[in-house]
Amino acid sequence: MSLEQYKDRNVGEQNYYMVDIEDYPTTGWGKFTRVVKRTFSGELFVGLWVVLREMIKFDIHTVSYPQEKLPIGPRYRAVHKLLRLWESGYERCIGCGLCEKICISDCIRMDTKIDENSRKEVTEYTINFGRCIFCGYCAEVCPELAIVHGGRYENASEQRAHFVLKDDMLTPMDLLTQQQEYPGFGAVIPGTDKSVKKTPLAY
Amino acid sequence: MSKINITNFTIDGRSVTANHGETILNVARREGIYIPTMCYIEKTTPCASCRLCSVEAVGVDGFVLSCNTPPTEGIEIVTNSDSLQTERTNIMKLYDVNHPLECGVCDKSGECDLQNKTLEFDVSQQNFTARDQERSIENWGLINYNPSLCILCEKCTHVCNEVIGDDAIDLQFGGYKSKVVPKDSDILDCTFCGECIAVCPVGALVSSEFQYSANAWELSKIPATCAHCSAGCSLEYEVKTVGAATAGQSEIMRVTNNFEFTSLCGAGRFGFDFDKRDVKDVNEFNKAIEKFKSANAIKFTSMVTNEEAMILNALKEKLGLKLFNEEARNYQKFMRAYSKVSGKLHHSATLDAVKQSDAAIVIGSRISTDNPGVRYALTTASRHNGAKVIYLHPMEDALMQNVVTQMIRYEVGTEEGVLALIAKALLTEADLDETSQNFLNSLDDGYLCAESNVGEEELEMIQKSLRRTKNRVIILGNDVINHDRAENIARIAALIEEYTDFSLLIVPSEVNTLGVSLICDLDEETSVNSVVGYNAKADYTVASFGEADLNVAALNQQEGTFVSVDNQVLPTNVAIAYEGYTLNEIAGALGVEAEYSIDYTPQLPQTSGFKATAFDDLENFLTHDGKDVRGYILDNVNREKSVKFEQIADLPEFNGTVIYSSNPVLQFNPYTADAKQLESDISLRGSAQFAAAARIADGDEVEIQTSLSSVIRVFKLDAELKGTVALNPNFDLGLERTLGSYRYEIAKINRVSN
Ligand code: SF4
Ligand code: SF4
Ligand code: SF4
Ligand code: SF4
Ligand code: SF4
Ligand code: FES
Q1: pTM for the full model?
Q2: Domain range list for chain A
Q3: Options 1.10.540.10, 3.30.70.20, 3.60.15.10, 3.30.470.20; CATH of B95-207
């Protein structure tokens, strides 16, 4: 599936047109004729014919869920992911706590400490999905593009605690190459490169 | 105040007046006129390094620094103009050059002056160029220093020198390479009060334990009073829920203070994790109730709130028990004798009076470790008023070296004689009543001088150095309060207070000794059986520290009040909730009922000066201009006078090896001993002379035997000490700690052979 339609955020220039809908009948006679027309129009058979036709063609589009899953649109706000840096594999999250602060349902909690290199280390990061309203504020506020909404939309599990720990959300090291840059809510807006200015530094 | 001392001028067209010594900034702040500052700190002399406080004066070329300029009569000050705005914006631009963009992780973020002012002056980009410097983060024990974040405001060096007195850090200048360095040393060797961390406006100096563990905005601030010594410092416990993947529990992350006006020592700042965790154990509780019912006495220490003291006293009456607390009883005895001569219940001086003094005499206390609050007040007086500090003690105190102007080493045990000699020296011209005059006349100066080792010349020097001083205080400590001759000493002290312009500060040894002594009817400790201990070891022990039979809430887990050395009743609050039993619940089961401990606050005895104010009506903060409105000051209480003196007793001699019960810096009691950040040095520290006398060497394990107890410690040679008295700590002894006896003891020191 192409992401074109999602990336194009300029709604104003798209070709909208008015759908031609008949006016609703207002008189009793008008309503009566509409019922009769719908009842005998044979549209039921149109549907049956489509099913039959596709059956004969053996070109079936049905996705065999759950073995197969359709990709979800990047604007959809599903269960969160914590991303890593591409080259080094370091965790992107710097532990600034902004997501924790902005979270409208107060469901993010994190523990941080100083590590042996005098850097801030996030030792645990949890989201209580029983309370999360999937508003996307956390992804939007994150200065490091570290917390994002992933594509995982199935929230059913035997344990409420599933997929809420840092380990569940963080890209595993061995899957680093498959990590996708997040294109949806809270991602860098197109053209960011152009607005970045260089700080004058003498070396 | 006389007219001469008042200057009339205008700020932004408003007529204002400055008192003597006030700067333009002081007046502006008092009047609520905003002038931005970056390096100003109220409790030190102006650092004058940021120039942000520049203002214009009509008729004067260029800008004037409002923080260190006193106004002249009639001058017109303008605090805001286009050129000032440009000047200030440029200053902020310079501060921001190459400043690391690490607010995201910085501890200071959210309460950072640089962040605030950068936003205020809308500096959104850097248009200057500067070479980036290689600067490494330094670890100085409890403190981490990041020179890249440092803006060289000099606040840290100013407080360290002018308020604390350690003078341990310095600014090393070198253009963009400038940084703060430990003075004359590679590593920071100081008393670790942490004041430099508190005053640092950016994240350059931070607590290494706290660093990166929480953000400023997640912490709940609990206003409280320090539970370690009687200075009653105001502090805030900053609490947060930790454990993201667990049920989470509340923990104190750090302690902060209103550093603009007040100071904390390192015990208050870093020794906060003494809270007790326990659940309700009904069986043990019932057992405790039985023990109380069958007890003959309750023994307790002064590590209690006024409300707890009140409950214990009520239990005494209800159950007909005796109430033992030798240390508070000694204080009580001392103060009663004092009242007989002075006619007042409370001593007259406060820590503020010490700060403002220009002459201070300290007798009978190793004050820098006994009460850091007094030490800082003396440092402030010395630095800001050039105060003469006369320090009388058998042992030199290296920490007071920069402050003390005259050190007089008297012989151990001769405090009574020493104070009598001082009284005589100070009262030469006083118009005394007959009894007092006779008493002074009867003194055998020759004998006293010889035995106490205080020379005539030394006394003359005291007289001389006090000559042109105006605000004087005399500070008495633990050694005189717990002296055998305490009562006569108290009378002499009262005499000095009465007939000279000296005010008197009597420093209680434990956090709430003063409160306990005003509330409880204490009995002389005798050996009886079935004694219940409250925060003290006894046949059955209830305590908030150590191995107790029943645990109770520690002092940072309770609502209640303390009485500080300032005679101020100070409220403290619950930082960490306690799940177990409290004294109030025990008392409830024994028929002394109240819903909460703080129900006793308005019932504190008014005969002792307490007010009938409910706990919830007590304030606990400092106003924006630094006025301390915490709690209330005890009312003056007049007592009947009956001036009578005893002859000075023969001065005792302490020959051979003597130990002095004294804790190292930042250590006071079992709470501080529990605090994981505080260094815990439990060695016996003595001079080479002591080592020779005791025939021991550095590093030896020795048994210290006194008439009362015996303890094994490692001996450490301390080059800063002299004489044959060694320092023996007691903070680590937990419930076994004995208080309330004279702090010097002749001891037998034996090397433990193994
Ligand atoms: S999506 Fe919204 S509610 Fe959920 S964790 Fe993020 S900020 Fe909180
Ligand atoms: S906002 Fe981003 S970088 Fe900051 S703590 Fe949250 S996930 Fe980490
Ligand atoms: S010192 Fe202040 S401005 Fe600098 S990184 Fe820390 S919070 Fe940001
Ligand atoms: S911790 Fe205290 S004594 Fe040590 S450098 Fe800082 S201000 Fe000075
Ligand atoms: S360390 Fe902090 S207080 Fe000290 S000079 Fe630097 S910025 Fe100022
Ligand atoms: S506040 Fe006056 S120079 Fe900094």
Answers
A1: 0.91
A2: 28-57, 80-187
A3: 3.30.70.20
